[in-house]
Structures are given as C-alpha cells and as structure tokens.
Specification:
21% strand
Length: 286
C-alpha cells in the first residue's frame, strides 16, 4: 500500500499537467512519428519551471517525485520529454522514465544514471534509445578531442548522501548508518571523444545535412574542478533550416527555453569556460 501511495503522489503533478490525455496522448498525437512527438512535447514544456535536482525516487535518500511535468533540470527535462514521446498512454510514461533513468529498470538511488558519460550514455545506448551520430572518421581528426575526468563514485555517493539526509533533518547516527551501506565502486574515468564546438560552428551547414530532425545534444566545457565531462544537455531540433535548442538552463528567468543554438553558444562565449565540445546522439524508438 505504501508503494502504491508513493506512486500516486509521484504521478499527481504529471496527471495534472497532462490533463485528460487531450494534449500528450490524443490518438492523433500518438500516431505521429517519434521525432514529431518529441518536438511537440518539448515545446509543450517550454516556460515550465527550472529547478535544481527536482526529481528523485519518491522514497529513501531522495524522496522527490519520480515524475513531474511542472519543474525540470536539464537532465530530467530530456528524460521526461523522451518518456512521454515513447508512450501511448499515461501509465506507460513512468515505466519509460524508469527504463531511461535507472540501470536494469530498477528504481534505487544507487541504480540511477547519475553521470552522463559513465552511466547515462552507455545504459541508454544499451537500451537502444540513443546511438552516436558523429563517429570518428566522419570528420577529420582535428574536429575531435578526447576529454578525461577522474571520478571516484564512492566518494561522490558519500558526499551526496550526507547532503540529502541533512536536508531531511536526519541525525548523525542515521547518516553514519547510511554511509556504511554505500557500495564500493572502483575508480572510474569519465572519458569521451567529442566534436569541437569551433568545428561545429564553422561547419553548421554541413552539420544540418548530417543531423536528424531531432538530436540529443550534450555540452562539454573546460571545468577541471568538476568530476564530469558533460555540463549540460538538451534537444537539438531543425526547424525552418535553423538549429534550435530546447533545454532547461540554470539561468534567469529559470524557465525551460527554446532558442537558436548559435545564440546559446554566443551567451556561453561570455563565460570563463565557454562550450568546448558536443556529444550528439540519434534518438530511437524502443
């Protein structure tokens, strides 16, 4: 009964936002191609609230809801758009979220695909949801760069669990007991070969010819203090011969945005660590 109650709480924001199947699961919508459904759903959520780490497991260390369409961060925006677009009815959406977000479809904090390069990407490639668009050999070697970060996942879990439990008001005994259950994970590297942003921008017309109508895009910035390579993600859509980025940026006015990709590049050029590279993936029906 507790599990059922938790699921109802998690689904409530989604059901309210979606209405009576009239927007997301109308028969006419369901019959559209996956690309068209992704575009429609991504656009529907434009101007929804952007929040830091809005979703969790609905229980345990991170009791935030499993699913919501009222607020997003960059990762959960992409996950929810894809889960909705892959579903023919509401009750399939949560199943698809779990397939995308959790290793082996098992909902737990330790099974969540926390890190893009070493968790999210390989798990969703294995699932068949995404496949690389730009493989080395498609472009000259100078167009690519290999990035590396050393990531100690066990240490990261320690710090994250302490933060989450302190937020819940847990005492030191409960926190220490939870830390004893942290799995020992061998040190891993976040390592990927990415397309240089300068090459992409200099060859935009060529990119438009190669890219599908909708792509998954991940951005890499030179931020050595972070243990991860990917710093942001979104959906790249070709509309009227232009490339638009649908994403949940961490900036004012804290709303999901649709903007020209080049405008986003230009904005990020002003930062101390501008966008250095991109990872691009085709989205597949599963």
């Amino acid at each position: 009964m507790r599990i059922i109650h938790a699921l109802l709480i998690c689904l409530a924001p989604f059901l309210i936002a979606a209405g009576k199947d009239t927007v997301l699961f109308d028969p006419g919508i369901v019959k559209l191609s996956l690309e068209e459904r992704i575009i429609r759903t991504a656009y529907l959520f434009v101007n929804r609230e952007v929040s830091l780490d809005p979703l969790g497991e609905g229980f345990g260390f991170d009791p935030d809801p499993l699913l919501s369409t009222s607020k997003f961060d960059c990762t959960t925006y992409v996950e929810v758009v894809l889960a909705v677009s892959l579903s023919n009815k509401e009750d399939e959406t949560l199943q698809n979220i779990n397939r995308i977000r959790y290793r082996n479809n098992k909902v737990s904090f330790y099974n969540r695909n926390h890190f893009m390069v070493s968790d999210w990407i390989p798990e969703n490639v294995k699932l068949g949801l995404i496949s690389p668009i730009l493989i080395e050999g498609t472009f000259p070697r100078k167009a690519f760069k290999k990035g590396k970060r050393r990531l100690n996942k066990t240490t990261w879990f320690y710090h994250r669990i302490i933060d989450l439990l302190e937020k819940q008001g847990k005492g030191s005994k409960e926190i220490l007991a939870a830390l004893k259950q942290v799995p020992e994970i061998n040190n891993r590297k976040e390592e990927a070969s990415y397309l240089l942003a300068t090459y992409f921008r200099e060859n935009t017309d060529k990119m438009k010819m190669i890219l599908p109508k909708v792509s998954l895009v991940m951005f890499i910035r030179n931020m050595p203090t972070l243990p991860t390579l990917v710093t942001h993600m979104g959906l790249l859509v070709q509309e009227q011969s232009k490339l638009y980025l649908y994403h949940a940026p961490r900036r004012r006015p804290w709303k999901v945005s649709r903007e020209l990709l080049e405008d986003y590049f230009l904005e990020m050029d002003k930062h101390r660590a501008p966008i250095e590279g991109l990872l691009l993936y085709k989205i597949n029906k599963i």
